[in-house]
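Exercise (ungraded).
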Amino acid sequence: MTETITHFIDGARTPDAGGRHQPVTNPATGAQTGTVALASAAETARAVASAREAQRDWAAKTPLARARVMFNYKALIERHRDEIAALISRQHGKLLADARGEVTRGLEVVEFACGAPHLLKGEYSPQVGTDVDSFSMRQPLGVCAGLTPFNFPAMVPMWMFPVALVCGNTFVLKPSERDPAAPMFLAELMMEAGAPAGVLNVVNGDKEAVDALLTHPEVQAVSFVGSTPVAEYVYSQGSAHGKRVQALGGAKNHAVVMPDADMEQAADALLGGAYGSAGERCMSVSAVVAVGEAGDRFMETFAPKVRNLRVGPYDDPDADMGPLITAEHLAKVRNYVDIGVQEGAELVVDGRDLRLQGYESGNFLGGCLFDRVTADMRIYQEEIFGPVLSVLRADSFEAALALVNGHPYGNGTAIFTRDGDAARAYSSRVQAGMVGVNVPIPVPMAFHSFGGWKRSAFGDHGAHGPEGVHFYTKLKTVTQRWPSGVREGAKFVMPTMG
Ligand code: NAD
């Protein structure tokens, strides 16, 4: 029996209203497990209306009261961690342990949001002029919307709504239509935590729901995470309709391996960094730039590890990675491997022939490894979003840095070296938003902020952390003087304080 996933509006799952639907599948078997309703513009507007209605009372609560709801939410996420992970894995295909890790990274943002009273403190300056004081406060925007990708169906929504909510906003989430179960459950738990109906709504859907949110006059801000073409569209449409927009896009994350690196450590780190979650992470390493004689040594150490990768369904405790999200995406990634071969790159490990007994219709692809990739190749220029790693060779640190900085994407990057000077120069000069030193996937913790540069992000402010608080609030500064009995009369020139 298949389930139908609808929407979560005004504190409850909506009945199925007919309309458009799309299949939801199990990526390991290819079998359809349910359908998801695709919201119309009218249904999306209902969610916005519910959020609008709830916002005034929610914003009037003290930050402490909102934080206490978040403390309850934290406890509920901890209690249901395995259940949420299972919902993720069944529709996304990632390994259960990886899904648990995803929930934990989302939970960390909830923990950050529990500090709302501290996060929302303003600044105060007494005596900015004689008997004049000035102070600032951060106020909510109103209704905020979140548009999220398939690859982190729990974590990426949790980058957004916990911070938005504790700042006094209400929220409409439009998660990926490919794995909508976990976000629906997250919204239910928010009600259980004590948030009033309408504070967090979920509309499932596609471009129709997205466009309805981007043009709705009551939506004040839009947070987007997904591919670069859609990020750019959301940024331009949302901005044109007067909204504050942060739009995080795709990536081609480079790791530079210097000749003095601990090659075994670098190879192990990059194996997980490139092939974990079948490469379907925006921070996955997809290009290694090996400097000088590091090239041959890296390939000798790394290639056997790629050959030994174990691929399996999400509940196989021995698997290193699972399937790709859909059959279409598998075909796209396989096509990139074909393109790489045609372009003349050396396919050192070919995962295209992988067949798993009992899972013949699953979206599985073995790890693929290209050597001697060059900067003009499509497999280097474009985001593949699968278990395919390109290795490029560079003569020097400067040549490697120029290659990384010349790439259109600038999400995350890493350098593997024992040389502090090289690491420092790389961290300071590289054109990317997140940098790792001997750390393959340098995802900032919840109390820092996440965000890329160049074509990996459009708009201001990163996700979560202090940047998230700034994104979801408006700054107001008050300058005040109390009547003192001294009357100065009208003034017609700019006052100078002092
Ligand atoms: P996607 O761009 O296809 O979808 C993201 C969201 O946009 C979904 O909610 C989807 O329904 C909606 N959408 C899709 N097409 C649309 C259109 N034409 N008009 C309006 N809305 C549309 O991305 P995806 O395939 O779900 O996720 C993978 C992508 O996300 C990769 O490119 C990956 O790098 C990126 N990503 C980036 C980050 C980051 O932090 N920078 C994090 C995770 C994923």
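Further reading is listed at the end of the chapter. For now, observe: The CA atoms of residues 184 and 316 lie 26 Å apart. The mean pLDDT is 96.
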